Amino acid sequence: MRPRLLVVSLACVAGVLGVAACSSDSGGTAESATSVPRSAAVTVAPGQQHPRTAPGTTLDFGASASLPADAYRAGGSTALYTVTGITQGKDVPSAQTRGGTAYFVYVTVTSLAQGPAPAPKVLGLAGSADGRTAALTLPPSTSLKDCANPKPPETMRRGESYATCLVAYADEGQKLTQVIYWADTTGDDSLDYKQAPVVWRNPADVASSSPAPPAG
Question: Any signal peptide, and if so, which residues (predicted)?
Fold first, then answer.
């Protein structure tokens, strides 16, 4: 049986991404996936510089991080990744959740290329319960109403975006509230996102979990 909450190698994930879609059943969760925006309007000003976002950076949902456009070329070109939220999924086949819970991760990807270039990839993004450990996160293997995963354009120019959705799988009793970028494909410590992921979270969740100030 596959574990659902684990840090897997990028090569392993890439292999799974090539698996053909499988049949669906009526299993799923009761919560509707409409509580977070499914896309963001991202503007890239002419000449605007976007330094690579440092490992360990924490962002609110809706903020953009400048990250490798291809996780296998961590020192290459970058793109903007805007995670708008994560929410409990719906209508995901029970054969895939295996007693756990599926979550939908919504992300908008924006090219920073100066000319036509291959569309940036989303490999390296994952749902997370603790902001460090990656849950198994993949494109939906079946057509899901609330988690569209359209094929990105073949090429994109600077400022062009596409919105997509990934499915993160939590073990039974776990709740995924954060999204991380955790790819580590080089020996360069400055690019070691696996050791120190970029984290997106809901600031309201952080506030609600903070201890109340002492009275008086």
Answer: 1-20
